[in-house]
Amino acid sequence: MAGPGIVLVLAWIGAVLGPIVCALVIRRLLRGRRIIFAGSLAAVVAVGWIFGVWAFLIEPATLTVRHVTIESATWRGPPLRIGVISDTHVAAPHTDVARIERLVARMNAERPDMVVLLGDYAGGHEPAAMRARPEQSEILRGVEAFRGLSSPLGVHGVLGNHDSWYGDAAIAGALTRAGVRVLDNRAERVQRPGGAFWIAGLADMESPREPPLVSATLREVTDGAPVIVLTHWPDPFADVPGRVALTLAGHTHCGQVNLPVFGRLVHASRMSERWACGLYDEGGRKLFVTGGVGVSILPVRFRAPPEIVILTLREPVAGGRTIR
Q1: 34: which of 29, 78, 169, 299 fits an S-S bond (Cβ 3.0–4.6 Å)?
Q2: Which CATH class for the 63-314 domain?
Q3: Whole-model pTM?
Q4: Range 24-58 burial, b when 16+ CB lie within 10 A, else e
Q5: Domain ranges for the chain
Q6: How large is the angle between the packed helices 2-31 and 35-53, nearest 10 degrees?
Q7: Which of 76, 55, 155 is nearest to 315 (CA)?
């Protein structure tokens, strides 16, 4: 975590000293009557300073509540409001336990029927044994803060690659203590008025135990009730059959930096370029990829704001259309 932390410190130093240094340089140029050059330099520096302050210090600390409605031909029964949280990256820059507690309160205020957690709860890339004790404690306390989530149909989750790197057993244990149903290549039937449905959770693609097993996991579905698949990575969606009403994924951070004209320059996995952010419909198969909350590698977000999602899944409405 030292690298991203140092970058964040440098961003704060630049935010404070940047205008002062620029003013001194421009003042010197004006004394030499280089007015045009001074004005051009001032404009370039101002744009860079605003971009840097926003991308490194402001946007990553915001939180957007995104509302999405998806119509699925294989969904049956009344609409289901799903709260979606992903990629919190506790102990990475911008995310501490207090932020998770605020996020939980914000989600509870939306009153979803069910909450799903899509992995990468731990920040950083090192295993737990290489972390300082305070950092280990912060990560586990951040995960256990999900015990504050409240929804009638419970909280279900899967693990992500940062959790596998940190120690999947430790993260899964903290989730279980928080009352989260951890679905690691497992499916569970959820009973509700108006008709039951299934939640099928896939293992992380970098799990030390087994890869995501789509077919084997869906074989645990023993009736014709609708199925929702949870996966950290969007990549397994390639193998999800048409009978699944909706697949939910995270991992991509919506590119984390989404530049005008150039778009997303970095993709988190092989299929993240194809399924980078938002809702996808491939022949009736539905995938929604959330940008998540935290940051990875660099403490930056630009035009990819941290988000939680309130997703309403429903049957198609005659003459209607899916709302993004």
Answers
A1: 29
A2: alpha beta
A3: 0.90
A4: eebeebeeeeeeeebeeebeebeeeeeebbbbbbe
A5: 2-58, 63-314
A6: 160
A7: 76
